[in-house]
Specification:
This protein is of the alpha/beta class. The chain folds into two domains: 283 residues, 3-Layer(aba) Sandwich (Rossmann fold); 201 residues, N-(1-d-carboxylethyl)-l-norvaline Dehydrogenase, domain 2 (Orthogonal Bundle), CATH 1.10.1040. 47% of the residues lie in helices and 11% in strands.
């Protein structure tokens, strides 16, 4: 570790430590063009990085990012980033060696307010042409089974009743679009960057459906004029904690919000932008009309496998994803399910077969430099299992394909949600509906069907006798003989 830490700021960019690259462009010349809501680690390591790379080529200086958030906790992030001129140190964790660069494509952050007035005004500004979001898979107010808009949710009821002072990002976007229509600024593109299949279509559904609850004419205008490109985003980005804060110091930089990431990125985007866009393809992104196939491969094989790993790791007290891949049972379990069950339900994409993608994911998850916790990956299973695993399970059942490992994954999720590990330690709540899940998981110990009867997740899958039988077998075996015995039985089958 270096003795003197360089506090990250615009003034410090000319004095970055040896080996740390930074912006070669004049940040004072950047003009805003994008508002990004939900400015966490993933956005800064992914979308902001692509834009930074374009700016390094002397392009896209009129597409600067203004960060935003709608949760009270987002204000702390705003203050951290404002204190360092909205710069971020990205640390690439390559097994061949670590490297660092400072990214400067973000130029501001809207103060977080209860009525979102500042955010609405910023999105209504004529120079803003894209409003992007990373608000997690469960943040779009959709029913996990039907995938339809949940108009009964209290947040949606509130925003519909108070459209001029909404509490959600979607209500704020609608209010801004209302202002833009009134003053003739025109529409903006709504760009979801979350791990949802058809994320652009889902964003359109949420925005138009919410607008229709209070202003049908505005809803029609949004539907007819705004665009919502589907996209697939991919990069493993761990949460920032003490280890990451210590790691950035080894590069000689004092950064209050550094980001670590793997040495892999992918961004596949539908080219459907009503008010222009940066040329992200010149920085490595892919524009295509076949986003759906890329989404399906990534969501089912990578995100789905992530849940298999994390739930098993939590139950067996394995803290990190790479250690789970080294575990002789967890790693082999994930590999077998991915190759012999999930891959059967995934179509190839240009340049990549499902089998090759399984191998790519295996290498990425096994990267020992990525200190990614099972707790982070397992968070919000009530959104991630219905989004990442259950569609594959449904497809396998419909075709009569192998699905025992997928059923086992649901039994492992149920065992994890009971709230204890096999070593007796407690699993802290890790889901927005953790209490509900725990009640069902404990009851399912004696009656496994109770878990499947959570129809807000499983829908009519709860009635499938093949799933019932397999799930009952695995959950009973886990409770009687332990998860390792269940994994061993599956691997030997």
């Amino acid at each position: 570790m270096q003795d003197t830490m360089l506090k990250l700021s615009n003034a410090a960019l000319h004095d970055l430590p040896d080996g740390v690259s930074g912006p070669n462009y004049d940040r004072s010349a950047i003009k805003p063009g994008i508002v990004h809501i939900g400015l966490g680690n993933f956005h800064r390591a992914h979308q902001a990085w692509y834009l930074h790379r374009l700016m390094q080529q002397g392009q896209a200086l009129d597409w600067g990012i203004i960060g935003a958030g709608v949760r009270a906790g987002d204000e702390a992030q705003r203050q951290r980033l404002a204190g360092q001129d909205y710069l971020t140190t990205l640390i690439e964790l390559d097994p061949k060696g670590r490297s660092a660069e400072v990214v400067g494509s973000m130029i501001g952050f809207v103060p977080v307010e209860g009525d979102n007035a500042g955010l609405i005004a910023q999105m209504a500004a004529p120079e803003i042409r894209i409003v992007a979001l990373t608000v997690t898979e469960g943040g779009y107010y959709i029913d996990p089974v039907t995938k339809q808009f949940d108009a009964r949710h209290p947040d949606m009821q509130y925003d519909a009743a108070h459209p001029d002072r909404p509490r959600t990002a979607f209500g704020a976007m609608i209010a801004a679009l209302k202002d833009r229509r009134a003053i003739g600024t025109g529409p903006f593109t709504g760009q979801s960057c979350d791990n949802l299949q058809g994320n652009g279509a889902i964003l359109r559904q949420t925005l138009v459906s919410l607008a229709r609850m209070s202003d049908p004419d505005l809803a029609d205008w949004i539907d007819a004029n705004c665009t919502f490109p589907n996209s697939m985003v991919d990069c493993i980005v761990p949460a920032t904690g003490p280890k990451e804060l210590e790691l950035v110091k080894r590069f000689g930089i004092a950064d209050a919000a550094p980001v670590t990431h793997e040495n892999f990125r992918q961004w596949v985007i539908e080219d459907n932008f009503c008010a222009g866009r940066p040329d992200w393809d010149k920085a490595g992104a892919t524009f295509t009309d076949e986003v759906h196939a890329f989404e399906a491969m990534k969501i089912r094989l990578l995100n789905g496998s992530h849940q298999l790993i994390a739930n098993a790791g939590e139950v067996l007290s394995v803290e990190f994803i790479s250690d789970c891949m080294d575990h002789p049972l967890i790693g082999d379990f994930v590999r077998k399910v991915a190759k012999t069950e999930i891959a059967l339900q995934v179509a190839p994409v240009p340049g990549m077969t499902p089998a090759a993608y399984v191998d790519l994911v295996d290498r990425r998850f096994s990267n020992p430099e990525i200190i990614d916790t099972v707790r982070r990956v397992a968070f919000d299973g009530s959104s991630r299992h219905p989004g990442f695993i259950l569609p594959t399970l449904r497809a396998a059942l419909a075709k009569g394909d192998p699905m025992d490992g997928l059923a086992l994954s649901q039994a492992i999720w149920a065992r994890m949600c009971a709230g204890t590990r096999e070593d007796g330690t407690k699993i802290a709540p890790n889901d927005p509906v953790w209490e509900k899940l725990t009640i069902a998981a404990v009851a399912a110990k004696n009656n496994p069907q109770i878990w499947l009867e959570q129809r807000d997740f499983y829908g009519d899958l709860a009635d499938n006798t093949a799933l019932q039988d397999s799930f009952r077998h695995w959950l009973s075996l886990i409770w009687s003989d332990g998860l390792e015995a269940a994994l061993r039985t599956y691997l030997q089958g």
